[in-house]
Fold this sequence. Notes:
This protein has one helix at 344-349; strands spanning 6-15, 71-81, 89-102, 105-111, 114-119, 126-129, 136-141, 148-156, 169-175, 182-192, 252-259, 261-266, 270-276, 282-286, 291-295, 304-310, 313-315, 317-321, 326-336, 352-357, 363-364, 369-372, 374-376, 386-393, 396-401. By secondary structure, the protein is an all-beta fold. It has two domains: 16-256, no CATH class; 257-401, Chondroitinase Ac, Chain A, domain 3 (Sandwich). Strands 1, 2, 8, 10, 11, 13, 16, 18, 20, 21, 22, 23 and 25 form a 13-stranded mixed beta sheet that branches. A hairpin with a 2-residue loop joins strand 3 and strand 4 (105-111). The longest helix is centred in the last third of the chain and has 6 residues, at 344-349.
Amino acid sequence: MTRKRTIITLLIGIAATVAIAACADSPTGAARSYDVPAGGHPEAALTAAYPGGVEKSSVNFNGTPIPAGSTIWFSAVVKVTGVSKHGGASIQVTGQEISFAANGRTYSYAVPNGTVVFSPTAATATTTADRNSGAWTTTVPSSYNGDVFVSGLAVPVSSALPGGIKPVTWSASYASATSGLSVNWQWAAAVYTAPFMTNTAIGVKPVDDNKTSAYRNSDHAGTPEDETKFMGHGGATGGGGANYTGGYSGTLSFALVNVITRTVPLAQAITASTIVTPSSGGALSIPAAGLNVAIPPGAVSAPMTITVTALAGNLVTYDFGPSGTQFSAPLQVTQSTSGTNIGPLTALLGNLTAAYFENDNQVNASKGTALVDELIPLNAGALFGTVQFNIYHFSGYLLANGNSDPGDGGGGAQNDALRRATNGGGIQ
């Protein structure tokens, strides 16, 4: 596990990349059973070309055993905001893997890729699957703001599984070429009593409302409408009955941003420190990096030393310490835009925003990207050569382009992070 470190990173543009723990179904299928390579394999380590930006969420199956001959239907949905100001957008999810351990072995399954298209010309929502790869494409009107199906997998169960399997992990890489998007991701898993047809024949409901798609009912997005007659009596995250997807996991929100760069890279790291007191606060600066930090009186309860390091290289990135420190009053961070790639147009539009992330492996120096957890509004824009924002704790901080709403994530350059070669298959 990497240690938490406070990093301020100035960025421009936003995309979304994430890996999440959950359950899922098997890749492509043929005539009531999935036609996939036989045999699973242990979950691969979450490493790839993008060395960071990995998020995990562990989910436990409920206590209902899953009989042999069943099918576990795993489905993932997203809720996306920020589309309307662009007129349309698309999100891609790739490199997906579901894994868990049971019966003395580890099961691992590749999930077909998924794409969600928010189209200004779409009148209704649809979900289709590629006949060869099983990849999903869901198209919805750009004005739609509810849950949207993004990807799913049906796993045939050949040998009975016990109840209470934990943890079940779903990992994935999300990306978008559109800035200013906020993505919330959830997944669920339900048990059916028979094998599924192929992805093209199960009739997945694309959205959760009762009027935007051909399925005018109250079923959740991701419901396999043509398979609901085989709904079981519970298991996985479901309780049977009319809940055809199972109960949802917790929500993970994320954004992938492009880091603002220095026109002249720092040849080496530069560190500054200061002693801060409750009565007088303090200040520190790194002129060569264009950074100033003001700590107001009352921010700390006892004297302490604060350190900031401008990291070597061309990314405007800072490491603050002690990591994990929290403050009773906000610190004001001021970054000069001189010597960065924040141009006059970006400054004029005034659509920069700050953001934070927790771990140093969320910054990819080679690609100039970072995975962020939350966006933070600026106190002042870049028209006069500086940007300012407040922080209350030492975690990673960034500046992004394309969003002024702190709850709105973003999308920028595409990223093929977390792609892993995996073999699917039924549960043997």
